[in-house]
């Protein structure tokens, strides 16, 4: 009868344990990575991709390369991210240590006095009355080691370490993405600085032209060929053009300081190329859309986050299962310090236990469902990152094409208006054109040259941004 009762107790215990280990049902998500075979604005299919070019090759301006080199060493935001990478690496170390045994050395001494009418107190009084009966009691003295080891039966701890490794890799990809952005920001600011220098040169050239025209009009006025009104109009236009240079000079200061912030420097001189109009725009090779999955650091980072979140779900799932732990103590123990190091003072203890959640599993279930929700979030974020990367490339490819066409058209307009300045001046001197025509021609030529510089700048920005959109710059 006793055996039957014991068997029933064991069966009931096992049944309760299995019930406690029941895992709720959840629905996970697999991210879709399907992409078009070709970019919408390209007519050729070629795997050649400018993202494969090292940034020093793509940006072959020595001044720009020097600025980027400085930024990659001193940019504060980049250095902050490097510390985040170090933190992620330390997380791997911590997770790796969790599935190894924890061993601690300890030593201790205890002196206590028990009440007279307790068993320990009675024995102490007995020893005081009969000192020859046994050794004197001082307390409890111990030196030894303790060990605790959770057996990773369900690979929960190893899975947590793998998740930490993936997040470390994701942080590294985040650093690559930041490097790409920093290079693009410096290049865009550098080209903007060159464009502002060119605009300032154009304005100063026009100031010289308008100053000469003003002198001619004054002579014409002295000869009674024009009125004071003509002189005033020419002088007003000259003052307006002179005023433009102040705004350009302020923009130059702001842009220089933007570059200084990116490079982590406060007082360095920003050297730059002065041949803005001669800068060549290289041909763009976009490759295939599927290459974005490996070239874009932000896409790679999102992919690693998905993989890590899946492992987090596995870790949370393992919390429903029983955990097994071994504990052990070994050392020397005695009530009198003179006996501590004797062979008979050796003590040891070995224990094993299995623990499974039974009542109030809400916290474990909540963590499990939260881990699954985060996995779904990561999958959606991965899909969104892929779509955003593809559309960004489409936008930049369109930008490259449109600004190339715009620059060609505007350059023709500038050539015509530049020629018209000389024609209008000659006609005015021969009294065959009104001074208003001269003023309008000069203003239109100045505006067209500035617009041409702005279009050239947008061309260069598109040149930089398509490189970044395709995933170039971090290699």
3D structure, described in words:
There is one protein chain. By secondary structure, the protein is of the alpha+beta class. It folds into two domains: 27-99 and 154-321 and 358-469, Outer membrane efflux proteins (OEP); 100-151 and 322-355, Outer membrane efflux proteins (OEP) (Single Sheet). It is 64% helix and 9% strand. The chain has helices at 2-20, 55-58, 62-74, 76-98, 119-129, 156-222, 228-263, 292-295, 297-318, 362-429, 435-469, and strands at 102-110, 140-151, 323-334, 346-355. Helix 4 (76-98) runs antiparallel to helix 6 (156-222) and helix 6 packs antiparallel against helix 11 (435-469). The model has no long low-confidence stretch (mean pLDDT 82).
Count of individual beta strands: 4
CATH topology of the largest domain: Outer membrane efflux proteins (OEP)
* Strand content range: 5-15%
Average residue pLDDT: 82
Helical/strand content category: alpha+beta
State the CATH class of the largest domain.
Mainly Alpha
Poorly predicted ranges (pLDDT <50, ≥5 residues)?
A: none
CATH homolog superfamily of the largest domain: Outer membrane efflux proteins (OEP)
Proportion of helical residues: 55-70%
> What is the N-to-C succession of helices and strands?
HHHHEHEHHHHEEHH
CATH architecture of the largest domain: Up-down Bundle
> What is the first-to-last residue Cα distance?
76 Å
Radius of gyration: 40 Å
Q: Could you give a short account of the major beta sheet?
A: 4 strands, antiparallel
How many domain modules?
2
Number of helical elements: 11
- The coarse overall form would be elongated
- Kindly report the spatial arrangement of strands forming the biggest sheet: 1-2-3-4
């Amino acid at each position: 009868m006793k055996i039957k009762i014991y068997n029933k107790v064991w069966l009931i215990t096992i049944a309760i344990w299995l019930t406690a280990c029941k895992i709720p049902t959840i629905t996970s998500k697999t991210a879709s990575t399907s992409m078009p075979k070709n970019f919408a604005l390209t007519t050729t299919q070629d795997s050649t991709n400018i993202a494969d070019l090292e940034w020093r090759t793509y940006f072959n301006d020595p001044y720009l390369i020097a600025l980027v080199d400085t930024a990659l060493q001193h940019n504060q935001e980049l250095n902050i991210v490097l510390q985040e990478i170090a933190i992620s690496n330390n997380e791997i170390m911590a997770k790796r240590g969790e599935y190894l045994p924890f061993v601690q050395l300890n030593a201790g001494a205890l002196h206590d006095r028990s009440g007279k009418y307790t068993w320990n107190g009675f024995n102490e009084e007995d020893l005081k009355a009969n000192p020859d009966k046994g050794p004197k009691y001082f307390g409890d003295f111990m030196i030894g080691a303790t060990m605790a080891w959770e057996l990773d039966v369900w690979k929960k701890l190893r899975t947590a370490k793998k998740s930490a490794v993936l997040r470390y890799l994701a942080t590294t990809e985040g650093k690559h993405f930041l490097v790409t952005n920093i290079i693009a920001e410096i290049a865009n600011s550098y080209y903007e600085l060159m464009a502002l220098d060119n605009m300032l040169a154009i304005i100063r050239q026009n100031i010289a032209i308008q100053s000469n025209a003003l002198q001619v009009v004054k002579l014409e006025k002295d000869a009674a060929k024009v009125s004071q009104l003509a002189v005033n109009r020419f002088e007003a236009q000259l003052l307006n053009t002179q005023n433009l240079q102040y705004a350009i000079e302020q923009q130059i200061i702001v842009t220089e300081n933007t570059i200084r912030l990116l490079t982590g420097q406060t007082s360095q001189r920003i050297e730059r190329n002065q041949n803005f109009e001669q800068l060549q725009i290289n041909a763009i090779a976009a490759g295939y859309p599927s290459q974005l999955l490996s070239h874009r650091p932000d896409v790679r980072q999102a992919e690693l986050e998905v993989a890590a979140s899946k492992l987090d779900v596995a870790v949370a799932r393992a919390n429903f299962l029983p955990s097994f732990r071994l504990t052990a103590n070994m050392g020397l123990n005695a009530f009198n310090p003179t006996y501590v190091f004797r062979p008979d003072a050796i003590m040891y203890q070995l224990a094993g236990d299995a623990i499974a959640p039974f009542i109030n599993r809400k916290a474990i279930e909540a963590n499990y469902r939260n881990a699954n929700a985060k996995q779904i979030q990561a999958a959606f974020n991965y899909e969104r990152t892929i779509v955003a990367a593809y559309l960004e490339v489409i936008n930049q490819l369109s930008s490259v094409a449109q600004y190339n066409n715009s620059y060609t058209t505007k350059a023709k307009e500038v050539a015509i208006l530049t020629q018209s300045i000389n024609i209008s001046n000659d006609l005015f001197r021969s009294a065959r054109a009104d001074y208003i025509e001269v003023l309008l021609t000069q203003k239109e030529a100045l505006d067209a040259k500035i617009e041409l510089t702005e279009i050239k700048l947008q061309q260069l920005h598109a040149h930089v941004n398509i490189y970044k959109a395709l995933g170039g710059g971090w290699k």
